[in-house]
């Protein structure tokens, strides 16, 4: 038998590709609402603002602010209310 790769090496390589494929699918799935929230709250003119966002059960709301307080309240009908005070 002329086999250069052992079964363990083949399984390890297959597992590595499976993990990389899963990470790629998660990254490309578009489940993040970062762009909508971040675009709305970014800028120097947004001192005290509020906005509602619709999210699904598997969604994530990610928001970065340099300084100030962020309050996120869950409401009914898959809505979240985000308030930023600076």
In short:
The protein is an alpha+beta fold. The chain has helices at about 5-30, 35-40, and strands spanning about 50-55, 70-75, 80-85. Strands 1-3-2 form a 3-stranded antiparallel sheet, with no helix packed on it.
Layout of secondary structure:
Elements lengths: L6 H22 L5 H8 L6 E7 L14 E6 L4 E7 L1
Antiparallel strand pairs: 1-3, 2-3
Can you give keywords for this protein?
86 residues, alpha+beta, three-stranded antiparallel sheet, 2 helices, rod-shaped
What does this structure look like?
Helices cover 35% and strands 23% of the residues. With 86 residues, it is α+β, with helices and mostly antiparallel strands. The protein folds into two domains: 1-30; 32-86, no CATH class. A three-stranded antiparallel sheet has the order 1-3-2, with no helix packed on it. The mean pLDDT is 66.
Total helical elements: 2
Radius of gyration: 21 Å
User: What is the count of structural domains?
Assistant: 2
Widest β-sheet, arrangement of strands: 1-3-2
Shape: rod-shaped
Strand content: 15-25%
* Helix content estimate: 25-40%
Q: Helix- and strand-based class?
A: alpha+beta
Mean pLDDT rating? 66
Spans of 5+ residues with little confidence (pLDDT < 50)?
none
End-to-end distance: 71 Å
Largest sheet: 3 strands, antiparallel
Tell me how many strands there are: 3
The secondary-structure element order is HHEEE
């Amino acid at each position: 038998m002329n086999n250069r790769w052992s079964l363990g090496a083949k399984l390890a390589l297959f597992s590595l590709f499976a993990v990389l494929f899963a990470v790629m699918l998660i990254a490309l799935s578009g489940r993040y609402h970062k762009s909508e929230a971040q675009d709305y709250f970014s800028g120097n003119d947004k001192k005290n603002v509020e906005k509602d966002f619709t999210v699904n059960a598997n969604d994530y709301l990610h928001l970065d602010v340099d300084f100030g307080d962020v309050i996120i309240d869950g409401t009914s009908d898959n809505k979240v209310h985000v308030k930023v005070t600076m």
